[in-house]
Specification:
Blueprint: E1 4-7, E2 10-12, H1 14-18, H2 21-39, H3 42-47, E3 58-62, E4 65-68, H4 69-85, H5 93-116, H6 123-136, H7 141-150, H8 155-179, H9 184-195
Antiparallel strand pairs: 1-2, 3-4
Helix pairs in contact: 4-5, 5-8
């Protein structure tokens, strides 16, 4: 399998990547920036110092889906906010980056597998979960939205995160239940140990 590594342990399959829609989008975005730079008159181009600005970069590929530096930074902000709220000292920046990237790769893999196997979570289930979270925090739905806004968290993004968490939870439950078998003898043995 041909590939290269953006980060240690993250294999990027360039054959699959070049066929991907994501590459077209990235190349289009990059060419727009390059096109704008070349479209300037020569006098203006000479007068203004050129500078390269990195908009985003791909740090990992999970099947045909890219994980960008923006995705990692966004997830890292969330983790750091939670750690701060819980008075937990964060690990070194490079360690945290690696852990966040590994979590994103795992989550994307699980979400892709769930999609491939037809596992879905409907809007009612998401709404019930959101209501439960608001109630657990002793907030009304409106107060909950305001609390998210105060934390600079988009309601839509939070809702998508809840959807993803529910899908992963259901996937784990389904996979564990399908492999879990308990014989009658094991149940009887366990009950006997409780009585003793």
């Amino acid at each position: 399998r041909q590939g290269s590594q953006f980060l240690p342990g993250v294999l990027v399959d360039f054959k699959r990547w070049t066929r991907s829609k994501h590459l077209v989008a990235i190349l289009t975005t990059m060419s727009l920036g390059v096109g704008v730079a070349f479209a300037q008159p020569a006098a203006v181009a000479r007068a203004a110092p050129s500078r390269v600005v990195t908009v985003d970069r791909v740090v990992a590929i999970v099947n045909d889906e890219a994980i960008t530096q923006h995705d990692v930074d966004d997830a890292k902000r969330g983790v750091l906010t939670q750690m701060k709220q819980q008075n937990v000292q964060p690990p070194a920046a490079d360690v945290l980056d690696k852990q966040v990237l590994e979590r994103l790769i795992t989550e994307r893999s699980l979400l892709q597998f769930a999609k491939e196997t037809g596992l879905r979570v409907d809007d009612q289930q998401i709404e019930r979960a959101m209501q439960r979270i608001a109630q657990d925090n002793k907030l009304t739905a409106d107060e909950f939205r305001k609390a998210l806004a105060q934390e600079n968290i988009s309601y839509t993004k939070y809702r998508d995160d809840i959807r993803n968490e529910l899908v992963v939870q259901r996937l784990r439950e389904r996979e564990v239940e399908s492999r879990l078998t308990v014989s009658d003898a094991e149940v009887e043995h366990y009950l006997a140990t409780l009585k003793a």
